[in-house]
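Thread: Newbie trying to understand structure tokens

Hi all, I'm a second-year student working on a class project, and my supervisor (Dr. K.) asked me to get a predicted structure for one chain before our next meeting. I've only ever worked with sequences, so writing a 3D structure as a token string is new to me. If someone could post the tokens and maybe explain what I'm looking at, I'd be very grateful. Here's the chain:
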Amino acid sequence: MTSNADIVVDQFTRQAAPFANSSAMRDEDALRLLVEFSGASAEDTVLDVACGPGLVVAAFAKVCRHATGIDLTPAMIDRAREHAGALGLNNVDWRVGNVLPLPFPDGAFSVVASRFAFHHFPDPLAVLREMARVCTRPGRVVVADIAASNDATRADALNRMERLRDPSHTKALTMAEMRVLFAQAGLSTPRETCYDVHADLEGLMAASFPAPADAPIIRTMFEDSLADDGLGMKTRRKDDRILLSYPIAIYAADV
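---
Reply by user tm_fold:
Sure, no problem. This is what the structure looks like when written as tokens:
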């Protein structure tokens, strides 16, 4: 039986180049918002959980003492090393590995972050508890991820579409569900801010690797959502394109 970890590695090995080069991932304003909202400063040591192509690690490394990235997919870590090297960053480290458990001692980092990864975790609470464990006291735990609609029908539709588009997707949580996770992990009530990641359907599909039979189903779901925002993604038509927005929430809790 194929595990979630196997699916993640398969998907993100194929997605390594488009993911690393996408404008949404590289958006400097979004990266700056994440770093600033975390409260990170020059003395902080940072861990990025499921770091992908290293964009978040690099953004923290520019302002912090040291930043480490860990990711399950070797191809993503290769991209991360290339990115950091191109920027001339020498205060970064990389690990290939799973996040359960994180291979670091208690209190190893003063800021522990994760961006656009929680919707891939089969057990997000366990991951959040691990993030809290490796964070210093005092320190900060920061999560940025897709925020599903509070409307259950829209949230279910979003998650169904994302699982078709990317089989490594498990569940995008609502903001209320994320607050519950923080409480269950023994963390304080997080500060929150939100923004949108804008895209168009064909660009999204070009960077995705759904099963061939699922691609028309995904397109139909977006077409249908034009009438009632059925995915909770602000879908709209502009000329011959379908435009969409992923709602993103950032949560930052003191430890």
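A couple of things are worth pointing out once you decode it. Residues 132 and 197 are 27 Å apart (CA to CA). The chain has one domain: 4-148+167-196+248-254. Feel free to ask follow-ups in this thread.
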